[in-house]
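Cont'd.
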Amino acid sequence: MDMTLLVALPIILPLLFGAVSLTLLKNHKAQRWLAVIGTFSILLAACALMWHCQQHGIIVLEVGSWPAPFGIVLVADLLSAIMVLLAAITGVATALYSLKTVLTRFERFGYYPLLHLLLAGVNGAFLTGDIFNLYVWFEVLLVASFALLIQGGERAQMEGAIKYVTLNLLSSALFLTAIGLLYGLVGSLNMADIAQRLTQVEDQRMVTVVAMLFLIAFSIKAAAFPLFFWLPASYHTPQVAVSAIFAGLLTKVGVYALYRVFTLIFNSEVEFTHNILLWMAVLTMLTGVLGAAAQFEVRRILSFHIISQIGYMMLGLALYTPLALIGGVFYIMHHIIVKANLFLVAGLIYRLRGSFELKRLGGLYKDHPGLAVLFLIPALSLAGVPPLSGFFAKFILIKAGVEAHAWWAVGIALLVGLLTLYSMMKIWNEVFWKAVPSPAPAIPAPGGNGLLYCITGSLAAMTIAIGLFAEPIYQLAQQAATQLLNPQLYINAVLGAD
Amino acid sequence: MTSRFNMRSLILSTGATLLLPLLILFSLFLLLRGHNEPGGGFIGGLVAAAAISLKLFAEDYRAARTMLRVHPLQLVGVGLVLAAGASLPALFVGESFFTAQWWTLNLPILGSLKLSTPLIFDIGVYLGVVGSVLTVVFTLAEAEHS
């Protein structure tokens, strides 16, 4: 069979499983099975894609046999393959976690079909080689996420959803405007073709304007400074499984889009565009971590930390050296697994104690030492404690910063690391260490926590594995960064070498 | 006040009975015509959804639901399966994903009939549109009904 099909599988599989799941709307048992089988099959496809990408380089699929640059192409370079694989891992974890935690009334409103649709949108965005198609996939994942976000219909959810929807629609409008202007400039929507034609545009100022529009649009979606406030307003409101997959994946689609566009297309005025990126990265790190310090609800603290972590990923792109990009890619790999896991652990805390509020929690270390360890691994990794994954991610980035003489960015990155550690210790002290506050809150004792422990345990094991086997992961990130720094490879793969 | 709006209109319900099959036929006509001329699954689906909404206005929520038999979201599901499935036949003849496939059926009297994966895709769109529009309409009607 044609190997290029591998590029389409991560998109078509969730669509098909989601559609079948929708036809069986009333059969909850079948829906659950479909969710598990579907996400596992995506994981298999993602592994195959990853392996194939590493062996044979960039894979291009011309959808419907329409040749590039006229038709839509799906392109898997290493960055895309890595992102798809991480999305698949998060998808499996979320689907399994949902089996035990999602309420039946949400299943009735199509929880599982929406989950499949979300994954299709995310994978589509990672794999498309067409800028307008990227917009379409963004909309697909946003539609699915809107619906998942408001399931339950509580007041806080609606309030969060309104901010989420408004800012994301604003971002989509800017994105669409930017695509229109870009199309006006070069007359193409194929990203490789755009990259090639942009060098011949006379008015480079116009190109920079379009680049800035893309920067604003994607940074809203990535929850970067200054338009990040939709994220902490909404991510703590839905069900735990939903906030875990949102935390792991959604903002990273924005980050991925920034990486793609600012390495492939807008790479001519690096001093200007990437300097702005650097400012945004630093301010994003700082505001995120300071915001977290002021919060006293587990999921809100974690939400603010997503923002500060996005700053690190942008820092890798902003420095734009080989080492910095390696650091950025490494950071994304580490972050998605750790962040999704922290939200899942938060869900377990809620399951055992019935609250996310720090002041109402306590004493969990005594009752559930296993959970305490499961929290500590991703938490310390997030803060960058060796030998966990976060240490290497931060270390590479900071080394890249030192080499690039971006001293103040390095200083702030280190400071943010410290403050992250403070924040994680705050959760540790309040939730696990301190005595149970009196009066003791009523403890619901739902069963089936074994599976949930298994899921968070596996993700924690991955975090440790990334730390212990940092060398092969580093090499993978290096290969991905090499491709990003040589956009000609991507262009040749899509359009054919001249 | 509300009773005035809920009152059945004889003219409307008689008209609806006559119009309903015509509208459904017209929607199918639009769906099939869409291949080479203006029309297609989307517009055809809208017309079919309008036809069923007409039933809802002429009679009531229950009658429209009974006529549809399945939950409209299930229609969306079937539509999506067809649309996504239309991408796959190309793989069996070794062509690129989503490449359109054409088959010609020779019928004894009517001549040759061309069938294709774009048609399957369009039928999927048709069902998807009917399902999603009716989901919205039924949800609103249900809210008023209860």
